[in-house]
Amino acid sequence: MSILPFLAAGWIFLIGVYGMVTSRNLVHAVGCLAVAQTSTYVLLLGIGYRRGGTAPVFSDIPVGTAVVDPVVQALVLTDVVVGATVTALLLSLVIQIRKRTGTVDPEALTDLKG
Amino acid sequence: MSRRVRTTAFWLAAAAFAVIFTLACTGLPHFGTTLHPYGSRAVAASVRQHTANVVSSVNFDQRALDTLGEESILFGAVLGSVVLLRRARDEDRAAPQPRPVLPSTLLLGAGLLPVTVLVGGYVVAHGQLSPGGGFQGGVMLATGLHLAYVAADYRVLRRVRPLAVFAALDAVGAGAFTALGFAGLVAGAAYLENVLPLGTFNQLASGGLVPLVNAAVGVEVASGVIVLVAQFLDQAVEIDEPRHHGAGAGAGGGKDGDR
Amino acid sequence: MSTPTAASDFLVAAALVLVVAAATAAALTRDPVRQSVVLSALGFCLALLFLVVQAPDVALSQLAVGSAITPLLVLLTVRKVRRRPRDDGPAGEGPAGEGPAAADPPGSGGRGSRR
């Protein structure tokens, strides 16, 4: 259990990249990128976890209670929202590619067009 | 790069990554460790700044400059999507046909819309006290508004969502965050430093700059997501491509000549 | 002290298994429409994991973004990408079976007619 969550994060990253490498559809590839990105959430929150700690919100617990690391939570929080908007940007690029070339298969996008 | 070369390259890289990553993990502090030097400092600083939710304190006070950069990414991504998905000159807009909606869906959507928007606003407003804040509440507000599309149809959504207003609000939110940083400079401190009165711990008006930055982020995220989804909806529902992109056999040659 | 710790460890492990299974399924689902559903499930499992590692802020964010916004954008993109121009037939993939949408296997995006 001591490094299991970290290894799980590594597995999620690899399976996401595998999906991207073998993808035949750019929309699917963007989805796999979103999967690969979730590995960072798992890794960061795994590092910040503290056994017996509670959530770092002191509105209903006395100050001084043992809490989990709030810094990584702040990192992951922004990561989640930025990840979604970057996914949106990539998806709009996919729509443009479909408009320009008529395909969303990365294998078919061999020649560069000006 | 051919498919086989690419797959081989992936497996080699994956094997190397797996070995090195596992080795690196054994060197990390154990899962569930009680030693969190940054965490303890962040908690102490948050209590000093009268902010009950430490995550909000880190985001909007202690690391506010990083969040400003992150907001700029969000703003840039929304802007990029708007530019990429705007209607091209050779595309025409077709009004979608209204479709019948189940009465139960209509009732559920009409009932949930105000509740979702209210909860979203609550989550934004209480970001410094309880779990939540500008990011989560903003996304909730944006999602809640789209219940109008689920419950009724696209024309109703267009009416409850004046896109120009939300596009402007997106910029206002991003600008307000940047402008709020100057409060520190005016008071003779650093940019984005929390110089406002801190208020009472665990009250709505506590944390100084935190609720204000939080509200700016809430406005930006909500309107950013609304604008983003609107662009995609426009593309998926309304905008028609010109004929030559269809599956017609002779289209390929003619298309290159057009450009 | 040891019993609640063991219980929360078990919860974390169970949520991790769920997340890993959902992520694997999401990456290996080739059809984008099905993938968006699995992505939504992955978002939900992740929110569950974040909840048991005491990160309610992140769980809330993940629930709103990961299981609603991202799959929605993927679905809208698929709808746009698979849409055919109106002139070629009835708008949308209606019941008219001989429309170009039916001749095109999902995922290949009209590649065959072009190269």
From TrEMBL, chain A:
Q: What is this protein called?
A: Dehydrogenase
Compartment(s) where it occurs, according to its Swiss-Prot or TrEMBL record:
Cell membrane
**What InterPro entries does this protein map onto?**
CPA3_antiporter_subunitC, NUOK/Mnh_C1-like
Coiled-coil regions listed = none
The answer, when asked if Transmembrane helix is one of the entry's keywords, is yes
Main localization is: membrane
**TM segments?**
71-95
What keywords sit in the KW lines?
Cell membrane, Membrane, Transmembrane, Transmembrane helix
Q: What is this entry's stated membrane topology?
A: Multi-pass membrane protein
- Domain of life, source organism: Bacteria
Q: Which family does it belong to?
A: Belongs to the CPA3 antiporters (TC 2.A.63) subunit C family.
Organism encoding this protein: Actinacidiphila epipremni
TrEMBL record, chain B:
Q: Which UniProt keywords apply?
A: Cell membrane, Membrane, Transmembrane, Transmembrane helix
As for subcellular location, the record says: Cell membrane
- Give one Pfam family, short name only: MnhB
| Annotated transmembrane regions | 68-85, 106-127, 133-152, 164-192, 212-233
Where would I find the Na+/H+ antiporter MnhB subunit-related protein domain in this sequence? 112-226
Q: Which domain of life is it from?
A: Bacteria
Membrane topology designation: Multi-pass membrane protein
Family from the record: Belongs to the CPA3 antiporters (TC 2.A.63) subunit B family.
UniProt protein name: Sodium:proton antiporter
Q: Which organism is it from?
A: Actinacidiphila epipremni
Automatic annotation (TrEMBL), chain C:
- InterPro entries the UniProt entry points to: MrpA_C/MbhD, Nuo/plastoQ_OxRdtase_6_NuoJ
What topology does the record note for this protein and the membrane? Answer: Multi-pass membrane protein
Q: Which residues cross the membrane?
A: 6-29, 36-53, 59-78
Where does this protein chiefly localize? membrane
* DNA damage recorded as keyword: no
Which residues are the signal sequence here?
A: none
Keywords associated with the record: Cell membrane, Membrane, Transmembrane, Transmembrane helix
Where does the protein end up?
Answer: Cell membrane
Extract the ranges annotated as region (Disordered). 84-115
Q: Which residues form the MrpA C-terminal/MbhD domain?
A: 17-83
Q: Which Pfam families match?
A: MbhD
Please give the name of this protein. Answer: DUF4040 domain-containing protein
Taxonomic placement:
Bacteria, Bacillati, Actinomycetota, Actinomycetes, Kitasatosporales
